[in-house]
Amino acid sequence: SLEDEEDTLQDVMNIVGQEEIERTEWAMAKIGLEKMIDCLNEVRTRSEEWAIPTMASFEDGRKLSEFVFEGCNSADLEELSQLLVLDEVDGDFLNELIGYYQQASSRFARMRAKSVGGILALQEETVSQWRENVGPSKSEGAIDD
C-alpha cells in the first residue's frame, strides 16, 4: 500500500539528496524508486475497480482511480519506469514520481476521512429516526438522557 512505501520514499530521498552517490547506494535508490512505481501501478489498477460512493462533491459513477490519479495515467507511470531502467533519472523525474505518490496518498486520506464522516452521519441519522419512530419504552428499561 502507499502507506507502506513512506519509509521507502524517505530512504530514496536521503540517498538522492547526497552530493555524491556511490554505486551501491544508487542501486538501492533504484530499487526503492521501482517499488514506488510498482506500488502506484498496483494501487491504480485496484482503484479502477471501485466507483466512488455518492457524495456531495463527487459525480455518481466516477471511478476511484479517476479521482486519486487525476492527471496521471498508466502511460505516465510506464514512462517513469522506462526512464528508471535507462538510468535517466533527474530532478524532473523525482518531482513527477513524488508528486504522483503524494497526490495519491493525500486523496486516499481524504476519501477515508469522508467515508468515516459519512458513516458517523448515517449513524446519527439512524439513531434519530429510531428514537422518533420506535424509541425504547420506559418499561423496556430505557435510560433517560
Description:
- 66% of the residues lie in helices and 0% in strands.
- The chain contains five helices and no strands.
- Helix 2 (23-47) packs parallel to helix 5.
- The two termini are 43 Å apart.
Write a brief caption for the model.
Helix content is 66%, strand content 0%.
Q: Find the count of extended strands (DSSP E, 2+ residues).
A: 0
State the share of residues found in helices, binned by percent.
55-70%
Radius of gyration: 23 Å
Q: Give the low-pLDDT segments.
A: none
Shape: elongated
- Secondary-structure class: mainly alpha
Number of alpha- plus pi-helical segments: 5
End-to-end Cα distance, whole Å, is 43 Å
Largest sheet: none
Please specify the SSE layout and strand pairing:
Layout (H helix, E strand, L loop, with lengths): L5 H11 L6 H25 L16 H5 L5 H12 L5 H43 L12
Helix pairs in contact: 1-2, 2-4, 2-5
List its salient traits.
mainly alpha, single chain, 145 residues
